[in-house]
Specification:
Elements (H helix, E strand, L loop, with lengths): L1 E2 L14 E8 L5 E4 L10 E10 L6 E5 L2 E3 L3 E5 L4 E10 L2 E4 L3 E9 L3 E3 L2 E7 L8 E4 L6 E7 L3 E2 L3 E4 L3 E6 L2 E2 L3 E3 L3 E4 L4
Length: about 190
């Protein structure tokens, strides 16, 4: 799927399951790709390569409003300004976020390593406790921020590594274990 600059034909609706190799977003328009009825009945977008690219010239807000399954561990380069928002469940066996723009994950179900190497990621929802591998923030030296909020409350992940210019903030009733810091900042709404 590729959306180009000046995309103005409306917000595309997926009326059945779709499989694509990758997603490329290159636009300065607010758009939403969605599944009618909030994905009820299957309407899932599968990204075989796990890749998403949002160009550095992109801006404003783009919304993915259907469940997404990554066929391989995902590498999403979210460039530009504004935000990319994933409103439904994101299933992946691993995930890396690159690029300066903000990424909001409202229901991430990531069962392998989770890495934020630049920019800002907000992750929250009922599946936060499924983060199943090492969570790395800013370990390549770029400025990176991760905000986690577990609406279900409980353990959030198992092993965190923060780089020298990283920041991780944990909200709600989170319990953190396995923290390794080489600089960076950790803020928690509850005592460790």
């Amino acid at each position: 799927i590729k959306f180009g600059t000046g995309y103005d034909s409306g917000n595309p609706a997926l009326h059945s399951n779709r499989t694509v190799n990758d997603i490329i977003i290159d636009t300065n328009s607010d758009i939403a790709i969605y599944a009618p009825e909030g994905g009820v009945g299957g309407r899932t977008l599968t990204v075989d390569s796990g890749q998403l690219t949002r160009t550095t010239s992109s801006s404003r807000y783009q919304h993915l409003k259907m469940p997404i399954v990554l066929g391989t561990p995902g590498v999403w380069s979210v460039g530009g300004s504004g935000e990319l928002v994933v409103h439904e469940e994101l299933q992946a066996l691993g995930f890396t976020k690159l690029g300066a723009a903000t990424l909001r994950l409202k229901a991430p179900k990531i069962l392998g390593p989770f890495s934020v190497q630049s920019g800002l990621v907000w992750a929250y929802g009922p599946y936060i406790s499924t983060l199943g591998g090492t969570v790395s923030v800013g370990t390549t030296g770029d400025y990176a921020v991760l905000f986690l909020a577990d609406l279900a409350a409980g353990l959030i992940g198992s092993n965190y590594v923060l780089g020298p210019r990283a920041e991780a903030r944990f909200f709600d009733s989170s319990t953190i274990s396995g923290l390794s810091m080489s600089g960076g900042t950790l803020l928690n709404a509850k005592a460790l």
